[in-house]
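Q: What structure does this chain adopt?
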Amino acid sequence: MDNESVIHTDAVALQPELVELRHRLHQRPEIGLHLPETQAMVLEALDGLDLEITLGKTSSSVTAVLRGEKRGKAVLLRGDMDALPVKEETGLDYASTIDGAMHACGHDLHTTMLVGAAKLLSAHRDQLQGDVVFMFQPGEEGDDGAAHMIAEGVLDAAGVRVSAAYGMHVTTGSVPRNVIATRPGTMMASADALYVTVRGAGGHGSGPHAAKDPIAVAAQMVGDLQILVTRKFDIFDPVVVTVGYFHAGTAENIIPSEAKFGVTIRAFSLEAREKILREAKLLCEKIGEGFGLEVDAVISGQYPVTINNPDHAQFVRETVVDLFGSDFYVPMEHPTPGAEDFSRVLLEVPGSYMFMGACTSDEFLTAPTNHSALATFDDRVLCVGVEIHAELAIRALKESPTSV
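A:
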């Protein structure tokens, strides 16, 4: 039996314990950077493996290094661990027991797959022509856990900078179960926020000339932000600007002294991101200045654009097709406007992010989506994900995809 067949057989054999771990993680979801129960379950699952483990100082991260038979280079595999502030409504027999918290984005599967990859690669250490860094990351859902782990040295945990990095995200929609999708170049958008406060002078609604109405000025900003998008940005390098909240006033006949709104901003290139953040802030400030009102326009930088190295995206495709056949891979025609802090890893080292279909139904296009209180993910993808993680590490250490 060849090595690939042995790895496949061993990955399938792990399935029962993978399911058990995933269900335990799903029942005890934790949110943010500090996930003590999740960290403890990961450490328990890794116990007995010959790994060099480091715990995070500013978060509940776990970095585990597996030393291969040969030394000198390393690759990184990443799984995020945090849940969402969602009250689960799936009715599963292993549903969340924490009120108001749910693994609605499938990070319990990511964590489980990474544990499985550590077990599988530990059993096949003789095939590793280098080291593997397992990045168990908290705080992906808006808390920038990747930045915390990078600052604490995850990319150099093996003693050398990793030469490649791979991450996977399960999805209930867009692709069928067990199918992998990725693309070269931009895969996911950046995500940033703009918080605007407009300060005027309150007064009676019947006499707006005697006040300085912040609502009218803030409303103009909301509209002009959309004009900014259509008149200053190339439609082939798009940006998305969406006002998510607008708060002002207490009664219909009172002009308030203040209006506030918040904006999410998405871009698909580093250049467009830099430009829209600069221009959106300036636009709001200048509109306020034109009406003689004070404006605080604050940019909150969140996640950069997720950019796959073309050679590594191609390497993912070749690996998946070689393992499972061409039906198990689909190219992404367009990037997705969602954002991901694995982008920070890919700005530092070459690699590729990918999506994996994990819908429990064949009707994946109409199933409840990631982040829904009704979202469910199929356990059957676990051993497949483990095998892909393991094979990417083995082959990347052996074949060294060209970086550009």
